[in-house]
Amino acid sequence: MSVSAVFGPKMVTLPNPPSLTSSRFRYGGAIKAVPRIDGCGGGLVIECSSRPQKKATAHHMKTRPRKTQPWDIRRKPAVYPPLPPLPPEWSFAPADDSAAQPPPPLKSE
């Protein structure tokens, strides 16, 4: 059963209270009353924000941990041993037209 079947084809909307239509309402955003069309509709729409939030990356860059201790400032990146050479099966294919050919079949044991 739909809402219009219970309440009729048009729902009655109440007028906006004057306290909510002021230029500043909760968090400082300007709010504007939407004009009513054919007696229905209306409501409040936020026009702008006076204090927008930072986007995620900007927030993480601003609040990231800083190196303040001398031992942390002088710290160098970790040194790892070199990786072993790659096996010959993992070599790069030549750049000529042989790349269009299908690979050779695998040997089964």
UniProtKB/TrEMBL annotation:
Protein's UniProt keywords contain Ligase: no
Bias (Basic residues) ranges: 52-67
Pfam families: DUF5323
Biological process (GO), any one: translation
GO MF annotations in UniProt: rRNA binding; structural constituent of ribosome
Disordered as annotated region, ranges: 51-109
One of the record's GO cellular component terms: chloroplast
UniProt biased composition (Pro residues): 79-88
Alphabetical keyword list: Ribonucleoprotein, Ribosomal protein
Name of this protein: 50S ribosomal protein like
Native species: Actinidia chinensis var. chinensis (Chinese soft-hair kiwi)
Highest classification ranks of the organism: Eukaryota, Viridiplantae, Streptophyta, Embryophyta, Tracheophyta
